[in-house]
Write a structure and sequence with these properties.
The complex is a heterodimer of chains A (about 300) and B (about 280).
Chain A: H1 2-39, E1 42-45, E2 50-53, H2 57-63, H3 66-96, H4 102-116, H5 119-129, H6 135-142, H7 154-182, H8 186-194, H9 199-210, H10 212-225, H11 230-236, H12 248-258, H13 262-294
Antiparallel strand pairs in A: 1-2
Helix pairs in contact in A: 1-13, 3-7, 3-10, 4-7, 5-11, 7-10, 8-9, 10-13, 12-13
Chain B: H1 4-39, H2 61-69, H3 72-103, H4 109-117, H5 124-137, H6 145-153, H7 155-169, H8 173-181, H9 186-197, H10 199-215, H11 218-223, H12 233-236, H13 249-283
Helix pairs in contact in B: 1-13, 2-13, 3-6, 3-7, 3-10, 6-7, 7-10, 8-9, 10-13
The chains are: A mainly alpha (about 300), B mainly alpha (about 280).
Amino acid sequence: MKLMTLRQREAIAGVLFVSPQLLGFFVFVLGPLVAVLTFGLFRWNIIFGELDFIGLSNYRQMLGDPEVWEVAVTTVLFGSGFVPLTVLGGLGLAVALNRQTKVSIALRAAYFMPVVISLAAWTIVWRLILQPNGPLNALLELAGASPIPWLRGPTFALVSVIAVQVLKTLGYSMVLFLAALQTVPSELVEAARVDGASPIKSFRYVTVPLIAPFTFMVTVLLTIASFKTFALIHLLTMGGPGIETTVMSYYIYVQGLQLFDMGYASALATVLFSAVLALTVIQFVLRRRWVFEGG
Amino acid sequence: MRSPLTANRLSTGRIALVVILSIGGLILLLPLVWMVSSSLKPEFDIFVFPPEIIPEPLFWDNYREIFVRAPLARQYFNSIYIGVLNVAGTVAVSAMAGYSLAKLRFPGRFLVLPLLLCALLLPTEVIIVPLYALMSRFGWIGTHLPLIVEPVFGAPAVVGTFLMRQFFLSIPTEIEDAGRVDGLGTLGVFLRVALPLARPALATLALLTFLASWNAFLEPLVFTAGNKELLTLPVALDQYTDVDGTPFYALQMASTTLSILPVLMVFLLAQRQIIEGIARSGLKG
């Protein structure tokens, strides 16, 4: 009898304790997500107070607009540059700096430092560095090379945007891989070395399979991060020149909160959300094969 | 054991590697050196050729000018007080939710965590339009409420809840039982036994929360609706421009330096905690 009341009390406390977070999740995450999926079917503008059901018109408009296709391609290009470079770069740094020497500790701090700085500050500094007559081109000129239009040439602009984001994020990826490397028992690597495996081979056949689950998580996290680049694009290029560096997350902002075509922006956001979801599911499916093959 | 020859070869390779990595590290640090250097030059010297790393003489006027041309002191204060409220709120919400999910049995508890973790898969950019509409409905646009309430209860707090849950799972139940034997109820055990033990985890959570709040950009840009008095630092850095929007670089570098300074100091003091916190909350999801 007493036990029952204790149980019940615990259950009540449990629900009460979690409810602020759970309510916040419903109001600020799940609710807005449902709204995005719904209002993609509406013409929606809160400035004019418009809210009309228009079915799939937004999606039809999207498919027929070459600009949207260009934005989609840019988003994919950005991700396929940013994600592999950051995963491999972070793994390389982690392996190279995984020791407790003073030099390694100092270098780790240097690579990690950009992670704690705001993306806005980091981008504003790089905007100066990459100006046509800025310090980077001045260095090129001193070296006898011709200046490069880092932010104005369509191809260069995309490369610059990716590079600035990679440099900002490398330390994050490095830290995650360093944590992963701590889980690899050193006896295993040493055993492989005693059996005559070269450092590269023991890395390939012992370390890589053992950290595969972590590599998977890092890839998922960075894939999602590759869609969170608003400050970078807004401050570095404003999506330009033309729309060459406009990625989907920035385009949603422009359509929804600058032009206040909020229904259309919701439809775009639905597409972006579906892409994130599909990529995550694909990665989870690939994970099975990946991790088993390796292990 | 290793022959002297291979040991030698390894160390040569190691030295080459360290040199390359040091150059890489310099590439990451140089922009910040350049930021400080440019903040100490008059605007017309920003693009002088050949570039000067240490300006002669040091031009400190920019650091006065940034406070004259814009309400930067007010914006600095905004960033600080919003950060503090974010920390206080998130610590409370996440510690309670994390404790509940780790230690308390209630129906449906196994569904809650996976549901919450979905928030981490969702870029804010996807839901920013309805979030704006919601805040506008609440009448909160042009106030700081969205910058405090949304992170404390919404997606950013989920990271904290997860972090705290992992920590509370590691506390042996016997310690709490001892508290219960002493006559404490659930709330008492949480406040008097679990929370004091969680001090290191709470400190990490506080650090990460403050950083996230200090560095946020999209939300303050959208929710402050262009009111300069309401801006936080990351959004304020871009305010120093001429009428065409061409940046005053010297002023931007000076304000950016001031905005980064506290973060770098915290980083130098609490590097290990920040790194461990990020590794823990990032990986075990």
